[in-house]
Amino acid sequence: MKEHSLLERLKNGLLNENPTFVLMLGMCPTLAVTTSIINGIGMGLSTTVVLVLSNLLISLFRKVIPDGVRIPAFIVIVASLVTVVQFLMQAYLNDLYGALGVYIPLIVVNCIILGRAESYASKNPVLPSIFDGLGMGLGFTFGLSCLGAIREILGSGQLFGIQILPLASGVRGTESYVPGFTPITIFIMAPGAFLVLAFLVALMNIVRKKMAAKGKPLKEPSGCMTGDCTGCGFSSTCSGKTPEKADKGGEKA
Q1: Is 215 left (phi over 0), alpha (psi -120 to 50) or beta?
Q2: What are the pLDDT digits (tens) for 101-154?
Q3: Residue 235 has pLDDT above 70, yes or no
Q4: What is the pLDDT of residues 147-164, one digit of tens each?
Q5: Domain locations in the chain?
Q6: How distant is the alpha carbon of residue 47 from its chain centre?
Q7: How many CA atoms lie within 13 A of 149 on its CB side?
Q8: How far apart are CA 253 and CA 242, in angstroms?
Q9: Cβ-count burial of 58 within 10 angstroms (0-12 exposed, 13-18 middle, 19+ buried)?
Q10: Which of 75, 156, 168, 182 is most buried, judging by how many CB atoms fall within 10 Å of its CB?
Q11: Which of 215, 41, 28, 237 is nearest to 122 (CA)?
Q12: How many CA atoms lie within 13 A of 208 on its CB side?
């Protein structure tokens, strides 16, 4: 595997098929845990570890896992890895574990992990599968970190738990009043998560259009995760296809 191809897998997860801003996958933890940048980084890195290791194992066993039971096999592998990550976080990062709560075990059914297992790791060698998982994981971490940073700054004036915007104090209109930042508490609530995500997705779309206008367009996402079944080795058994399309896929395969 050429070095530029491995770097392309990293770029793919960070830009071309960013799970958060392009594919819009893993929205539950994206919206729920990103009240601070620490939570975003913690959730993103936890998912990255599971992504890399699951891609590694699934790629190693891709030739011995029967097609008919591949999804249950993937879930068993991912669930085992998530359990290990959960116990390690509970032992060594207990505060972060408490903040992320139920979203750690829910990594098992994160569509990013199962999607990469199905669309890439199960059909490619080990090394590119590892870099694919790493790229997707870093892209997910980047997305969660951006949301967490913006929400934490606007919602409390803090970053990494440190007060970076001095807060207003005293009673407005009196001599004791000291002007300062007034936290916009909606940004640490659910509506704020949707607002920030919408803004960042719009920003990503603007960047993609400007790069296309300069003659350097980002590659469009493709493959199973975007509904493009061209060249998919599992097209005849994919649950997302209609019977007619499945038959056609089976004939081509």
Answers
A1: left
A2: 888 888 888 889 988 988 889 999 999 999 999 999 999 999 999 999 999 999
A3: no
A4: 999 999 999 899 998 889
A5: 3-165+181-197, 222-253
A6: 8
A7: 8
A8: 16
A9: buried
A10: 156
A11: 237
A12: 17
Which residue type does 118 have?
E
**Backbone φ and ψ of 78, nearest 5°:** -65, -45
Among residues 202, 115, 142, which one has the least CA distance to residue 20? 142
Reduced to 3 states (helix: H, G, I; strand: E, B; else coil), residue 55 is helix
Collapsing DSSP to helix, strand or coil, 167 comes out as strand
Q: At what angle do helices 37-60 and 70-92 cross, to 10 degrees?
A: 140
pTM beyond 0.85: no
pLDDT of 231 higher than 60 = no
The amino acid at residue 171 is: V
Extended strands (E) in the chain? 158-159, 162-163
Q: Hey, what are 162's tokens? A: 């440190």
Spatial separation of the C-alpha atoms in residues 30 and 28, rounded to whole Å: 5
Residues 6+ away with beta carbon under 8 Å from 161: 36, 38
Residue 146: predicted pLDDT = 94
Length of the chain: 253
**Among all chains, which residue has been given the structure tokens 């704020």?**
192
Alpha carbons 251 and 236: distance in angstroms, whole number: 8
